[in-house]
Amino acid sequence: MNRIKEELYKHCLQYVEDCINTAQLAIEDARESANDDTKSSAGDKFETGREMMQQEIDRNRKQLEEAKKMKLVLDKIEDHHVSEIVHAGSLVITNFGKFYISISRGQIQVDGTNYFAISAVSPIGLKLMKQKIGYEFDFNGKPFKIESIL
Questions:
Q1: From CA 87, how far away is CA 109, in angstroms rounded?
Q2: Is 73 within 8 Å of 102 (Cβ atoms)?
Q3: Which residues fall in a compositionally biased region of kind Basic and acidic residues (predicted)?
Q4: Which of 50, 59, 103, 143 could lock 70 by a disulfide, CB 3.0 to 4.6 Å apart?
Q5: In the prediction, which pLDDT does 33 show?
Q6: Within a domain: residue 80?
Q7: Do residue 100 and residue 145 come from a single domain?
């Protein structure tokens, strides 16, 4: 089962790296557009264009910072570590799904099986964290039970 956790980790890491690269490229593109606009515009049109590019840069900087935070979370995961208690990096099997405690990545398919990469601070992540096999809880009106922790 460690191989599955490794695959899930790789999917999450690739997702974060893609987010970082996309945000960095968008920042560079917005800067280039702002510079090009500076060379060819004058007056109010110039100020409006420059402000729009600055807003675009700011938005992408926020996305970049969020992606870097997710990368830090992944860097702290020891995917080979197995415990009786749910922690970051755990693969939690419940009667209603399989949850990889890492980042909010969503559904990932490995070998035809669906897993959900979730953050430890997401609503269901908070319910799962620091719990043991056999723990039962209600979530969205459904009775969940932890069947195993890998």
A1: 21
A2: yes
A3: 31-50
A4: 103
A5: 79
A6: no
A7: yes
Whole-angstrom distance, CA of residue 122 vs CA of residue 13: 18
Rounded to 5°, the CA angle 26-54-60 comes to: 35
DSSP assignment of 71-110 equals HHHHHT--TT---SB--TT-EEEETTEEEEEESS-EEEEE
Q: Model-level pTM?
A: 0.86
What is the count of structural domains for the chain?
A: 2
For 18-65, what is each residue's pLDDT tens digit?
Answer: 999 999 999 998 888 777 765 555 555 556 777 888 899 999 999 999
Cα dist from 64 to 11, 25, 47, 68, 148, whole Å: 18, 10, 25, 6, 35
CA distances from 130 to 10, 11, 127 (A): 24, 24, 9
- 33 lies in which domain range? 2-75
